[in-house]
Amino acid sequence: MFQKYLIIASKLDKAGINITTHLSQFGNYDFYLRNEEIISDENLDHEKINKYDFIIFASKHRSESEEKTLSVHAPGNWRQADFGGQSGKICPTSAQFLKQIFEKLNSNAEKYKLKDYKITLECTHHGPLINKPCVFIEIGSTENEWRDRRAGFVVAKTISEIINEFKENPYNEIAFGIGGPHYCPNFNKIQLNSNVALSYIIPGYALPLKEEMIQEILEKNYEEIDLAVLDWKGIKSAEMRKQVIEILDKFYIRYERTSEIRK
């Protein structure tokens, strides 16, 4: 499956440097340390990136709430590209990789007693846009957390383990999510406690759904999609829910509500 991994961080990013410094102690990994911000497409060395099978972006996370978080997500833009990438375009990713790295992040945070951090998925958002399967793993949300050595250790340990241990699980159902808020509480439970592996998440604020969004998912997801998972209450209106189902039916995609997934 994935044999060659590249870890990308920005020299301008205190969390990225924190993570990569710890990761270098776990083994001889391939790093690409950028002079630009990590979400920027400027001077991005695609030739270098394309020599690898899977890309892990190690990054800071910033939020207005300043909540302590460790988060993972697939990059891309469902609508306007305000923070790198291209409008309406998402990066390739792997639902199984996202599931396993999220599981490891949760278990390592518990093992190393990182109790005050919230471990969460984020919806698909921001750049850069690349053509290789990838994921962002981030420390948030202020400079105190970006510099937190224990948080950097936990994320680095998670990256090291996923690189060494990742393997395909033929029993997973491969899915993407629609609806809900940015930090995906209902999808977090599914990713951690069910047989469903989630890749992309289209949040409620990115709706109404467009056919082009589904087309992007079907083209960019590494595995074949089995179903869509709907955060039913997180889809704003009955009209919007109806429209989501009509589009999924048009693509012959099975769907279930988050409440219907066995956890």
Task: Write a concise synopsis of the structure shown.
The chain is of the alpha/beta class and 263 residues long.
Layout of strands and helices, then pairs:
Layout: E1 5-10, H1 14-23, E2 30-34, H2 46-49, E3 54-62, E4 69-73, H3 95-111, E5 118-121, E6 134-141, H4 143-146, H5 149-165, E7 173-178, H6 185-193, E8 196-202, H7 211-220, E9 227-230, H8 238-250, E10 254-257
Parallel strand pairs: 1-2, 1-3, 3-6, 4-5, 7-8, 7-9, 9-10
Antiparallel strand pairs: 4-6
Helix pairs in contact: 1-5, 3-5
Write a structural description.
With 263 residues, this protein is α/β, with parallel strands linked by helices. The chain has two domains: 5-165, AF0625-like (Aminopeptidase, 3-Layer(aba) Sandwich); 173-260, AF0625-like (Rossmann fold). The chain has helices at 14-23, 46-49, 95-111, 143-146, 149-165, 185-193, 211-220, 238-250; strands spanning 5-10, 30-34, 54-62, 69-73, 118-121, 134-141, 173-178, 196-202, 227-230, 254-257. The strands form two sheets. Strands 2-1-3-6-4-5 form a six-stranded mixed beta sheet. A four-stranded parallel beta sheet has the order 8-7-9-10, sandwiched between helices. Helix 1 (14-23) links the parallel strand 1 (5-10) and strand 2. Helix 1 (14-23) crosses helix 5 (149-165) and helix 3 packs across helix 5 (149-165). The radius of gyration is 17 Å and the shape is globular.
